[in-house]
Design a protein that fits this description.
By secondary structure, the chain is α/β, with parallel strands linked by helices. It is built from eleven helices and 14 strands. The strands form three sheets. Strands 1-2-4-3-5-14-6-13 form an eight-stranded mixed sheet. A four-stranded antiparallel sheet has the order 9-11-7-12, with helices on one face. A two-stranded antiparallel sheet has the order 8-10. Strand 1 and strand 2 form a beta hairpin. The longest helix has 22 residues. The structure holds zinc ion. Zinc ion binds next to loops.
Length: about 375
């Protein structure tokens, strides 16, 4: 492989949709996402690949094999980033897949199977929720029509935005046509960097429960309304936010729980809010424990509603993870790491990845690279 070429591509990507402090802010289906996709497609065509796009905008770049009747090996990740994203999250996995193709070309190496490099749409879930939508549609975890109908904060739909940037393809999801899936990703945690280990062999992922919770109260004057008459939606939200954090602490050392977003209306001084919406994110390596944690969140909603004199409902729910990666592929990665003399260890992923959805449809595996101090997203 040509490490300088891969590095140059990463630097080129790092200038498209620039964010804070040298990072990226390349949200799914924005103009910057289109520019990066166009660039990637151009690079793949230059490497001799043919391009195919499916109905949720996943891009497949194919390098033919000797026997094209064999199911291809799929390699990829995502090109969208968090709003305060880093340069390598997702991008590394896609560009490493392209580097595999270029290296095969450089060596005039013919593979038996075709190799395809894939870009999954909206992995991050910043603009449209839930995360990992394109891979979810591909693996038939999500219905394609449902994915296309999801809206962002401005009411724009996933489907319309996909058309606008020119990536509304026609191919149906067809995971059964593939042999296996590999995803290279930064660890987004401190383990590999702290231990000085170069290759993380991911054996599985935390089970994650996500939800949007809506709280409805009533507008009222914040001075003239007596405490007994108040129906302050923000109070209901605050009670749930604090409880979710408590639940994370109750399930240490492995539990993770957070409300990362709150929206309030009308959000003005002097007016008790009539509406609030929060997102809940609960994770644990044990699927059953993650369910118990999420169950505690749900059990608390009527309690918070009664205390704040509001109504609270679950507007949207999703779940991912709780998978084990394919044993044969995990063993293959370990064997190759040992043969190459590269330090390696097994570990679990706490973050969500497209590979989770793929693992439900075809044999899948993930390789983690270290990231300095375990940081993946920019902190400012
Ligand atoms: Zn990622």
């Amino acid at each position: 492989m040509n490490i300088d070429r891969l590095w140059q591509d990463l630097l080129t990507s790092a200038a498209i949709g620039p964010g804070n402090d040298g990072g990226l802010s390349r949200l799914a289906l924005t103009d910057a996402d289109k520019v990066m996709r166009d660039l990637f497609v151009g690079w793949c065509r230059a490497a001799g690949c043919t391009i195919r796009i499916d109905k949720t905008g996943n891009v497949f770049a194919r390098r033919d094999g000797v026997n094209n009747a064999l199911p291809p090996v799929l390699i990829g990740s995502h090109l969208d980033t968090q709003i305060v994203g880093g340069r390598y999250d997702g991008v590394l996995g896609v560009l490493a897949g392209l580097e595999v193709v270029r290296t095969l070309n450089d060596n005039n190496f013919e593979t038996q199977r075709p190799v395809e490099v894939v870009v999954w749409t909206n992995e991050e879930g910043v603009r449209f929720q839930p995360p990992m939508m394109g891979s979810g549609a591909f693996a038939r975890v999500h219905d394609t029509g449902w994915v296309l109908a999801q809206t962002d904060d401005d009411g724009l739909t996933f489907g319309d935005e996909l058309c606008r940037i020119g990536y509304a393809g026609t191919d149906e999801p067809a995971p059964q046509h593939y042999d296996s899936y590999f995803e290279l990703h930064i660890e987004q945690g401190p383990v590999l960097d702290a231990e000085g280990v170069h290759v993380g062999i991911v054996t599985g992922g935390f089970t994650s429960h996500g939800a949007k919770i809506q709280i409805r109260g009533e507008n009222a004057h914040s001075g003239s309304t007596s405490m007994t008459q108040r129906r302050n939606a923000l109070v209901g939200a605050a009670l749930v936010i604090a409880k979710v954090n408590d639940i994370g602490w109750m399930f240490q050392p492995d539990g993770r729980a957070a409300c990362a977003r709150v929206d309030v209306l009308p959000n003005k001084y002097g007016i008790l809010p009539h509406w609030a919406e929060i997102t809940v994110d609960v994770r644990h390596p044990e699927t059953k424990t993650a369910q118990v944690m999420y169950g505690r969140v749900l059990d608390f909603l009527p309690i918070a509603a009664a205390e704040a004199n509001v109504t609270i409902s679950v507007a949207k729910e999703w779940r991912f993870g709780g998978i084990e990666f394919d044993t044969k592929l995990v063993n293959l990665i370990r064997t190759v790491s040992a043969e190459l003399g590269v330090s390696h260890r097994h570990l679990l992923s706490a973050a969500g990845h497209d590979a989770y959805h793929l693992a439900r449809a075809i044999p899948a595996a993930m390789i983690f690279t270290p990231c300095r101090d375990g940081i993946s997203h920019k902190r400012s």
